[in-house]
Amino acid sequence: xxxxxxAPxxAPxxAxxxxxxxxxxxxxxxxxxxxxxxxxxxxxxxxxxxIDWLLARLPxxxxxxxxxxxxxxxxxxxxxxxxxxxxxxxxxxxxxxxxRAQVPRARFEQADVRTLPETPGQWDAITAFFPLLxxxxxxxxxxxxxxxxxxxxxxxxxxxxxxxDIEDQEIRWMGRTLRCTSYPAETYGRLLREAGLDVVHExxxxxxxxxxxxxxxxxxFIHARKPGGPAVTPHALAGPYPLPAVYRGPHExxxxxxxxxxxxxxxxxxxxxxxxxxxxxxxxxxxxxxGAVVREIAARxxxxxxxxxxxxxxxxxxxxxxxxxxxxxGRAERLPLRDARFDAAVATWVLHYTDxxxxxxxxxxxxxxxxxxxxxxxxxxxxxxxxxxxxxxxTCAPLVGxxxxxxxxxxxxxxxxxxxxxxDDISFTRARVDVVFPEVGAExxxxxxxxxxxxxxxxxxxxxxxxxxxxxxxxxxxxxxxxDRFNDDAVMLVARPSASATAGRR
Length: 506
Fold this sequence. Notes:
It contains 17 helices and 19 strands.
């Protein structure tokens, strides 16, 4: 709603009633709006981005409170679909009934947030998108303080409102007259900090509602975190759980095996990585490989430095110097670079080739300047439902006598190491990667896949022929379904210094 169009002022109103002020008025308003509100506001890009921010950081099966849950869409629907337990509260009976019908896996109650009992530390996250605009400032202040108490240590808040320096002012919105209260934008961050939260992000956004005659609206979005809690929460994308007790050790890397695989990739993880680095200027890539990632980083940013341990690969990337790529020899566990030289470091599909992934990640943290406002470390490893990792574990590992692979264990080791070095704002995002076999016919696809995968995983192994034969039955069944690809999905971990980590350096 817009706060710059006051309606004609009526005669003075009586004092607020003893019950929570604004409850009945808000209930009547949203009972009347019903699904029209969802149709008008559910596509708000900034709200969807705030939900994405939350989902990237929530632990497994998080307990999430949605204040002002409306029709359940988009907030409760998206969070529930990601496997979390959502309880929504809304003053409108109509909205509550719509939400129950549209998002049956969540729980919804008709209630004013001011009447809820004190439940300190109960919630892993709270969302509050525009629900506090029809209560007096004293209640607004108290509600923000209660939200902070309700969050568990380490809990997250995604909050949005319409900032304006008004109190109990009558406005026109969506063809109706209502009374609203708010604060200037800078006040909300201060109130949340005073309540004990770390504000990790806040920004103003302009949204144009899809409603006849509606003017653009200024929205304030704030992301906050309650101090405390575990350094790294168990995120679903760092699974499957339980995690192994120890690292299995490095896979062997075959240059020709990798080239054969790379020719069949459809990779969407590279674009995700480049977007994550879009505001950086001094980027280190660890394990440049064939140059697929560093080329894209240099194309976006103008330059990148990569460290590559294999002499043949290092030499093969030399021609990229004209594109802004600096290639250095060296190992991930001992980077030949001074402290805090870069504002970002990235390693894609590298940790499972290192002797000591924790040492490699610590070295990346050492080279990044934590004081830089865009400081970050970006890692990419396999997703928990990666079909190729599963195929390796079921068929190949027993045959060649190697331990099972677990990419989530690597991500968890990395996250704990990064948190210990002050990079404790950690997010996880899925990226689509496919390995495609366009050969004609299921048998031709299976034969090609057996050759490529066996060579990729175990070039030079004395049991390579047996590995090829062992893969064929599963590959035939897979391609008999009509598919031409395997899911080789990735998880991108992005670690940044949080507000609390930054404060600790001052």
